[in-house]
Amino acid sequence: MSEMMGEDLKPIGEMTVLVTGASRGIGAAIAERFASVRMNVVLHYRNSHEAANEVARRCMAHGAKVMTVSADLSDKEQIVRMREKLEAHGMEPDILVNNAGVSHYGLLSDVTEEEWDSLMSINLKGLFMCTQTFMGRMVSQRFGRIINVSSVWGMSGASCEVLYSTSKGGVNAFTKALAKELAPSGVTVNAVAPGAVDTSMLDHLEPEDIRLLQEEIPAGRLAQPDEISSLVYFLALPESGYITGQIISPNGGWVT
Q1: Is the pTM higher than 0.85?
Q2: Which of 45, 105, 164, 242 is catalytic?
Q3: Superkingdom of this entry's organism (predicted)?
């Protein structure tokens, strides 16, 4: 597989990726996957400083150039400052992975307005502001990859996860619409919508709930984070330039 598509495009190993919410779980696995080809990796986190540093150490062990940045993605000024910091260090992203997100479990009748606003400000508004802040350079260089980490629940909905499902459904619609807007500029926009993944996001479930969940999945198990990161990496390749506007769901056959 060729690493270049066109004479002016950098090899993927010289590109920079920004992964939001990269201090753990799927985000950490995504960052390490890109680091394994020695791509420049920017790890975003909000509060988990030590966890982000540990991911950074694992990425650097691959020989990658790594930078960590902290920002509250519900605050546009902090996102802009993050961009300015990356520009100052020559780490402007060619690839943006919008992975940061939070979950919520409970009956809709019990949801407060504050809970709604908090979840939407991270899962949907934060994704919008990050994309808007970083896509300009991609458009100007006529190459870029925007990959949004969604959820199978954004496709099918889930009882007691109305807030989360709604936010991820919004991510999917955002992905499809922006893909059409940016396609003429050589920038692809796709979403990866995992099923149940073995991360801390499932910590609210009891062991028996996990067992029953696995029985519902045709593959008979939870996904591992590196199974999601491999798909994100594939979508970021220059050779994947004809794939855009897609919601791809690695879910073990759970939702088809």
Answers
A1: yes
A2: 164
A3: Bacteria
Give the count of alpha carbons within 13 A of 125, CB side only.
Answer: 12
pLDDT at 200 over 90: no
Q: What is the pLDDT at residue 128?
A: 98
Task: Give the domains, in start order, of the chain with CATH numbers.
Answer: 12-248 (3.40.50.720)
Residue 5: per-residue pLDDT: 46
User: Is 164 one of the annotated active-site residues of the chain?
Assistant: yes
The answer to whether the Cα torsion of 169, 244, 31, 46 is positive or negative is negative
E strand or H helix that includes residue 189: strand 187-192
Residue 213 has pLDDT above 80, yes or no: yes
Residue 195 has pLDDT above 60, yes or no: yes
Q: Residue 95: name the closest of 35, 151, 152 by CA.
A: 35
Rounded CA-CA distance 161/178 in Å is: 26
Q: What is the pLDDT of residue 6?
A: 45
Number of neighbours of residue 148 by Cβ within 10 angstroms: 26
What's the rounded Cα separation, in Å, for the pair 192 and 26? Answer: 11
Task: Kindly write down the DSSP assignment for every residue of 190-253, as one continuous string.
Answer: EEE---SBSSGGGTTS-HHHHHHHHHHSTTSSPBPHHHHHHHHHHHHSGGGTT--S-EE--STT
Per-residue model confidence as pLDDT tens digits over 15-31: 999 999 999 999 999 99
